[in-house]
């Protein structure tokens, strides 16, 4: 009995849902918007269509007219129109995204878009298609113009304030990006720095780990030679190890024969076999280490010198994002104080930096020390004085020597 009742109600619901869908499709084909009227229109129950809202329609039209000029960002249009008293449903204040939604809605020039399909509406349009298209162009140009010209906030989340330790935040003002202390914890006297100034300082700073390419290629050649010699030596060892595996295999075979012929007891066989397998395993492990070691030992060092030899070029021609990524990878503890940056290099980069940026006097004491940075006309290295100009805190100097 129940199942019949459920079956009937399901049939009723399915039928109803199909009827509603059919009704919506029919309305759309007739050019009538089937849902709630968008802002600026009202649902007319008698005519079963939407009609311009006398109070709001002129303001919605104004939104398009203002934005189409291209002189106002969307947030400003919002402030102006909200100021004129345009409100959303249930008298809610309209947000910027509400305005974006309005500006993208085809219904205002008479077109109905429903689930990907387009229908020609019969309701009175508030604006022309030309105005609508113009608004889309403005929106596109505004979103595009931010990408290539501005390069917004390259150093977001990277620096801390050298005075109070708070995060350095970014701000865009009058066409420029600025960085400043967020001053969240304690009063702080630090002022704004231009992002472009920080970029220049970083370019100078990384020259402190820029290795002359001539010298780098000499050392890389030396390391490659060492690597191949070591690989050869390694391969000799590896060959010996490999060779010592063969007798073990024959020994295992012979052992099995002895066991089969009854010359060994089961216990003797098991014991001897475990011994031989253990020996084989130990040799295989040594072989693995031997093969891996030579590769692992030299490769990172060679990669490091190769990278260091390109830093000079990076400092001169690299994109700000590339320079940022390099310093983030090689350094830590980035600080900004009195418009000057400071940080410490990590690991082998610190050793290289310490060596290249020693005070001049120390270098001369040791006549045997090679001149790591040989100056070239096309790409001269930075003078210590030039580099020091950007080195603000004694921390980096002390860690650097
Ligand atoms: Zn601060």
List the secondary-structure elements in sequence, H or E: HEEHHHEEHEEEEHHHHEEHHHH
Which parts are unreliable, with pLDDT below 50 for 5 consecutive residues or more? Answer: 147-151, 363-401
CATH superfamily of the domain at 24-150: Putative Large Serine Recombinase, Chain B, Domain 2
Bound molecule types: zinc ion
Q: What class would the helix/strand composition place it in?
A: mainly alpha
If helices are DSSP runs of H or I spanning 4 or more residues, what is the number of helices?
Answer: 13
Beta-strand content bin: 5-15%
Number of strands: 10
Task: Kindly summarize this structure in a few lines.
By secondary structure, the protein is mainly α. It is 58% helix and 11% strand.
Task: Report what the structure shows.
The chain has 401 residues and is mainly α. Among the domains are: 24-150, Putative Large Serine Recombinase, Chain B, Domain 2 (Hect, E3 ligase catalytic domain fold, Alpha-Beta Complex); 213-297. Helix content is 58%, strand content 11%. The chain contains 13 helices and ten strands. The protein has helices at residues 2-29, 57-68, 74-83, 96-104, 129-150, 195-206, 213-260, 266-317, 320-330, 347-356, 360-365, 384-389, 394-399, and strands at residues 41-44, 49-52, 111-114, 117-120, 160-161, 168-173, 176-181, 193-194, 331-337, 340-345. Strands 5-9-10 form a three-stranded mixed β-sheet. Helix 2 (57-68) packs antiparallel against helix 3 (74-83), helix 6 packs across helix 8 and helix 6 packs across helix 9 (320-330). The chain starts with a helix and ends with a helix. 18% of the residues are buried. The structure holds zinc ion (ZN).
């Amino acid at each position: 009995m129940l199942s019949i009742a459920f079956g009937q109600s399901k049939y009723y619901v399915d039928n109803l849902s199909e009827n509603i869908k059919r009704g919506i499709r029919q309305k759309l084909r007739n050019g009538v918007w089937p849902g709630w009227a968008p802002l600026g229109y009202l649902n007319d129950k008698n005519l079963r269509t939407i009609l311009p809202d006398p109070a709001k329609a002129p303001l919605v039209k104004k939104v398009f007219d203002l934005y189409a000029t291209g002189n106002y960002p969307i947030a400003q249009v919002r402030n102006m129109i909200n100021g004129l008293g345009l409100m959303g449903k249930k008298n809610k204040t309209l947000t910027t995204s509400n305005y974006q939604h309005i500006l993208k809605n085809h219904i205002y020039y008479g077109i109905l878009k429903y689930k990907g399909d387009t229908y020609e509406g019969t309701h009175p349009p508030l604006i022309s298609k030309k105005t609508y298209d113009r608004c889309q162009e403005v929106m596109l140009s505004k979103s595009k113009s931010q990408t290539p010209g501005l390069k917004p906030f390259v150093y977001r989340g990277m620096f801390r304030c050298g005075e109070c330790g708070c995060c350095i935040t970014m701000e865009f003002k009058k066409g420029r990006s600025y960085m400043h202390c967020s001053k969240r914890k304690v009063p702080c006297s630090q002022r704004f720095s231009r992002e472009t100034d920080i970029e220049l300082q970083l370019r100078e700073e990384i020259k402190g780990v820029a290795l002359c390419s001539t010298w780098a290629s000499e050392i890389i050649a030396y390391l490659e030679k060492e690597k191949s010699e070591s690989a050869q030596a390694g391969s000799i060892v590896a060959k010996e190890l490999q060779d010592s595996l063969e007798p073990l295999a024959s020994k295992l075979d012979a052992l099995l024969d002895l066991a089969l012929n009854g010359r060994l007891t089961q216990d003797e066989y098991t014991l001897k076999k475990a011994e031989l397998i253990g020996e084989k395993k130990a040799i295989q492990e040594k072989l693995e280490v031997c093969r891996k070691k030579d590769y692992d030992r030299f490769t990172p060092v060679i990669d490091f010198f190769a990278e260091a030899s390109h830093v000079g070029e990076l400092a001169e021609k690299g994109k700000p994002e590339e320079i940022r990524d390099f310093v983030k990878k090689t350094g830590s503890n980035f600080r900004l104080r009195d418009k000057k940056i400071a940080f410490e290099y990590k690991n082998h980069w610190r050793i290289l930096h310490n060596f290249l940026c020693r005070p001049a006097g120390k270098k001369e004491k040791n006549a045997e020390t090679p001149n790591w940075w040989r100056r070239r006309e096309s790409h001269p290295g930075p003078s210590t004085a030039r580099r020091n100009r950007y080195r603000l805190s004694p921390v980096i100097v002390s860690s650097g020597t």
